[in-house]
Amino acid sequence: MKLSSIVSALLLSQGPFVQAIDKKDLEGTWSSKSNQVFTGPGFYDPVDELIIEPSLPGISYSFTEDGHWEMATYLVSANPQDPSCPSAAITFQHGSYDLLDNGTLILNPIHVDGRQLVSDPCNDHGTSTYNRYNQTITFHHFYIRLDDYHGMYKLQLFQFDESPLQPLYLAYRPPMMLPTETLNPTESASSGSAQSTGKSKRSLRDTIRRNLENKHRTNAVKSKPKGILNSDLVWYLSVGMIGVGSMIFLSS
Ligand SMILES: *[C@@H]1O[C@H](CO)[C@@H](O)[C@H](O)[C@H]1NC(C)=O
Ligand SMILES: *[C@@H]1O[C@H](CO)[C@@H](O)[C@H](O)[C@H]1NC(C)=O
Q1: Where is this region: Disordered (predicted)?
Q2: Alpha-carbon separation of residue 29 from 48, 175, 181 (angstroms)
Q3: Ligand 1 centroid to 138 CA: how many Å?
């Protein structure tokens, strides 16, 4: 056996695993198997403060190498009493993150920017509630590796109780994200890059509007091979259970 083939065999055996203590590895837009939910202007419109409902449930997280994050989740929970009555929550948040030396990842939200749309059709008489939302999210640890089956990079996040989140797959690198500064400053916001006068608020909104109009010129690059999986029925049916667990986590 030639030395070069021994060396490449060694490299191959280590290849699929990336020691994910590096912000560079985290960079990108990651999306769950449904491949329908992505962060960015297709999910949340900060100018009109509107959430845009994805066609299927799923979750997406984006990270930049310089410490910003964005989250888009659409979670459906089955109603055991009445299967025709699932409730749903669609949530947007963004902010800055800390990656601790021991591998714990802490996502700090910009408090005034988070939004959540909750629909509980059998209890809310058809009127969804739409509120501000702010929740610090802690992931106990995570790993990134090349998924042999899908041929995509996979991000496995573990919640604070160490239970795994549904796996996410790399969809865009660089990521597809909204502007990372405060989007909707209000009088009550103590922090934020804009002063809370109407004038500077409007100019920030104009900036965002321009940014959205330029979204076709985004530098986000779709990760290949694209089309991870067609959203299969088995997965879709299991979303309800995943949703319950995730929602408990989010509200804890
Ligand atoms: C890392 O340190 C933080 C803060 O000390 C702690 O809360 C967290 O549980 C630690 N994570 C791991 C994986 O040990
Ligand atoms: C964020 O949430 C906490 C409680 O979860 C609340 O006390 C605080 O007022 C919220 N901040 C904003 C700006 O909404």
Answers
A1: 180-220
A2: 23, 5, 18
A3: 10
Containing domain of residue 71, as a range?
A: 17-221
Q: How far apart are CA 205 and CA 212, in angstroms?
A: 10
Backbone angles phi, psi at 93, to 5 degrees: -150, 155
CB 155, CB 175: distance < 8 Å: no
Is 234 within a domain?
no
Structural domain count of the chain = 1
Closest residue by Cα to residue 59 from 138, 140, 169? 169
**Residue 236 belongs to a domain:** no
DSSP sequence for 88-138: EEEEEEEEEEEE-TTS-EEEEE-TTT-EEEEE-TTTSTT--EEEE----EE
Total-model pTM: 0.74
The pLDDT tens digits for 80-132 are 888 888 899 999 999 999 999 999 999 999 999 999 999 988 888 878 899 99
Atom of ligand 1 nearest to the CA of 101: 1
Hunting for tokens 């997965």 — which residue is that?
A: 235
Residue 108: inside a domain: yes
